[in-house]
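Figure 3 (text version): structure tokens given as input.
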């Protein structure tokens, strides 16, 4: 499948930063950002946010690397439960310095502060361009525009970075290496928790050439946050996604039919499993719907580091987990590159990309 065009014929859409600056002091948003005009989004947004003091599970990363068998066994059980019950968890004691996370957030903030014409140098034209910035999700197909600007960069197996602002490339390279170490260890733990060999995912998904992608998101203050949406309910492609943010909340996870506000422990990393783990586990572990809401006071910056298979790797349920009678394959095999192209070239719509490869079961 050829890379999908982002449509060169459409007029350039203003960044949400430019829109928010123009709206400063006003009390309403442009109609094109009002998600309540789109019925399929409204229905989902009608679900209430849980008022209970619920929190996503916590995984102590230092125990994943522990030489103590009992400690490791316990955290593998915790990881299995977090993947099965929530699909999200907070990672503590991960070894990524707080100063490094702060520097990465500041570098992304500096990118979004660049003049519009300078950011447009990195606009990109296709969903698989190694550097791509823009607004909303995919303006060529979005029915409603989302209150979000983004910068997406492929960091591995080949490192890319914008040439502006200064030191961005240097900071991103160091950060990507440290975060990749965390992701690899989590994936080893997930392999073990599924009853697979420790390095099963590593080998089957060719992680040596696996795709590491940074998606930096900017959500400026919004005059009518109850009408706008940063990102709609969706699941993520990839295996495991690690996220940091600038201390401003906005991430919500769907759990047992309600939306849960994610309030991370300071200096922790938020982790979630992606669609390819759901496929590989044959549905035992499920990628989970989440969304980004906005507020009328503070700018939120989040940085999601997605770790996936090699682009040419074919993702399918692990044969070791299948049984022709009790656990037949629930998903068709698909090359990871094709899955990304399919999801990213359409409107962001829940878990629709995963549903398209789900096999009918009797």
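Below: residues designed for each position.
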């Amino acid at each position: 499948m050829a890379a999908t065009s982002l449509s060169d014929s459409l007029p350039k859409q203003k960044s949400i930063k430019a829109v928010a600056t123009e709206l400063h002091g006003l009390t309403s948003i442009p109609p094109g950002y009002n998600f309540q005009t789109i019925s399929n989004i409204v229905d989902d947004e009608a679900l209430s946010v849980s008022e209970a003091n619920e929190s996503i599970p916590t995984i102590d990363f230092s125990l994943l690397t522990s030489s103590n068998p009992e400690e490791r066994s316990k955290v593998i059980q915790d990881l299995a439960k977090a993947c099965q019950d929530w699909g999200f968890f907070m990672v503590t004691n991960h070894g990524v310095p707080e100063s490094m996370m702060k520097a990465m957030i500041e570098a992304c903030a500096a990118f979004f502060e660049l003049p519009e014409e300078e950011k447009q140098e990195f606009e990109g034209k296709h969903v698989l361009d190694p550097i791509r910035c823009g607004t909303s999700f995919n303006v060529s197909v979005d029915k409603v525009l989302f209150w979000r600007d983004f910068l997406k960069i492929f960091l591995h197996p080949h490192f890319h970075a914008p040439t502006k602002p200064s030191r961005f490339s240097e900071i991103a390279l160091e950060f990507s290496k440290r975060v990749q170490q965390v992701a690899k260890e989590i994936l080893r733990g997930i392999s073990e928790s599924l009853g697979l060999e420790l390095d099963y995912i590593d080998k089957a998904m060719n992680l040596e050439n696996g795709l590491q992608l940074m998606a930096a998101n900017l959500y400026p203050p919004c005059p009518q946050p109850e009408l706008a949406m940063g990102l709609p309910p969706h699941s993520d492609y990839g295996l495991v996604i690690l996220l940091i943010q600038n201390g401003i909340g906005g991430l919500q996870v769907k759990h047992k039919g309600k939306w849960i506000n994610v309030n991370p422990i300071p200096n922790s990393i938020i982790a979630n499993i992606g669609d390819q783990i759901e496929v590989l586990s044959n549905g035992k572990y499920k990628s989970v719907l989440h969304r980004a809401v906005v507020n009328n006071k503070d700018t939120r910056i989040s940085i999601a580091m997605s770790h996936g298979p090699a682009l040419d790797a074919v993702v399918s349920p692990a044969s070791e987990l299948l049984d022709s009678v009790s656990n037949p394959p629930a998903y068709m095999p698909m090359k990871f590159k094709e899955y990304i192209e399919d999801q990213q070239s359409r409107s962001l719509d829940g878990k629709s990309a995963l549903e398209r490869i789900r096999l009918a079961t009797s």
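The CA atoms of residues 234 and 348 lie 7 Å apart.
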